[in-house]
Amino acid sequence: MTAHWTEETTGSAIPRAAVIGGGPAGLMAAEVMAKAGLTVDIYDAMASVGRKFLLAGRGGLNLTHSEPLERFVTRYGERAAVVSSWLERFSPDDMKAWAAGLGIETFVGSSGRVFPIQMKASPLLRAWLRQLDGLGVTLHTRHRWIGFDDAGKPLVRNAAGDTVAVDAGATVLALGGASWPKLGSDGSWTGLLAEHGIAVRPLRPANCGFTVAWDEGFIAKHEGEPLKNLALSFGGTTMRGELMLTRSGIEGGGVYALSAALRDAIERDGEAVLTLDLRPQLSGEQVRDRLRRPRGSESLSNWLRKSVNLTGPLPGLVRGVAGSSTEPSRIAPLIKALPLRLTGCRPIERAISTAGGVDLDELTPDLMLKRLPGVFVAGEMLDWEAPTGGYLLQGAFASGLIAGLGAADLSRSFTLPRQDLAQNSSTS
Ligand SMILES: Cc1cc2nc3c(=O)[nH]c(=O)nc-3n(C[C@H](O)[C@H](O)[C@H](O)COP(=O)(O)OP(=O)(O)OC[C@H]3O[C@@H](n4cnc5c(N)ncnc54)[C@H](O)[C@@H]3O)c2cc1C
């Protein structure tokens, strides 16, 4: 299959490009292609675009992070080198400038995370869609991509059930991962690409919750309660954060930051032991000193509350591990290093993001599939992952931009005389 980018196939001297998937990665690809002068059509399976982006804005849209770029890129782990090459073209500063260009000012929160002043995604998405409309981009909602025809054209099925071959010289696939499938990204594209021999790494939950075999009495009493101001450790990494107790286990920012390593360990060993420091602001010695206070006839909960200010579910957690041996020499080390046995990952449907996806070896540096020339891939459907903190959207936007620029370059090489091509490349 090759790009079919001629006047004959497009019916116009202006090249057409298609974006399939209207999340942040696809919209960014559409923006750069439209700005490069292409006629762009966006197809999305849902009735509206950017649904996960809107959900991301519900708890405060964390667009990117303000930490130095050298540290920023380490958040992409094994993929740091390749993502760093994307960030050279669209950096965290570019993200802020881009939002400002849409009239959305940002601020840096106390954690260093960057948010729009309004916190929500909806004003940003509205302004973005208005801009795309002004650039002549056409949205086709309720159009599901179902593969390619024999000539390599993308096939979409519309709401009436008709299958339409999309006339586009270049296509950017930005179909997302497999978390929150009810918002549109359901990972069903994996089989469609595998049919073309494209290696796709299994989609796995990232930034996800974990299962814990709670004592029934404990969880009945504490379900939905947060554990605040913890230090969580696993595999040599310690993070400050908080957790939420759920009926099936734990959720929350604190564990998301360690979730890739925990998930890998569970897949390998069947379980992983997360260590919680319940009083990170006290040293082990200070905890031991405070527990010298005689317990007398006090309940364990009262004694722990009065001695080391353990409240809410925390005494119960300690009791669950200590069992009947409640002497200070047993309890003090548990307060500083409580082992919590995680027996599984919560389903990908409830994860913040997805690990796995199109193997990066399948792609050229501008994110075109080597086996399907003219087809580019961007966003969460690529095989990279990152913790929460703005790194996910930054990666989705930056890869969308790279794929869009690649598609625009390819388009120009098909349509412009050589001297125009040289001129355009030097200004792009
Ligand atoms: C609860 C939650 C909170 C989050 N908060 C943040 C945050 O604050 N900061 C951050 O950086 N990240 C956050 N994220 C992650 C972020 O939303 C994603 O990383 C981002 O949306 C990925 O963008 P994408 O364009 O690659 O995919 P998506 O946003 O998933 O978009 C994919 C699009 O493709 C469409 N599609 C899928 N299959 C087909 C098909 N076959 N045919 C046609 N269309 C199709 C879908 O309908 C969808 O519109 C959050 C995620 C969740 C779930």
UniProtKB/TrEMBL annotation:
Highest taxon listed in the record's lineage: Bacteria
Keyword hit for Hydrolase: no
Plastid as UniProt keyword: no
Pfam families reported for this sequence: HI0933_like (PF03486), HI0933_like_1st (PF22780)
Location of the RsdA/BaiN/AoA(So)-like insert domain: 204-353
Cofactor dependence: FAD
Keywords annotated in UniProt: FAD, Flavoprotein
Domain (RsdA/BaiN/AoA(So)-like Rossmann fold-like) ranges: 17-404
NCBIfam families for this protein: aminoacetone oxidase family FAD-binding enzyme (TIGR00275), flavo_PP4765 (TIGR03862)
The protein's name in its UniProt record: NAD(FAD)-utilizing dehydrogenase
Organism: Skermanella aerolata
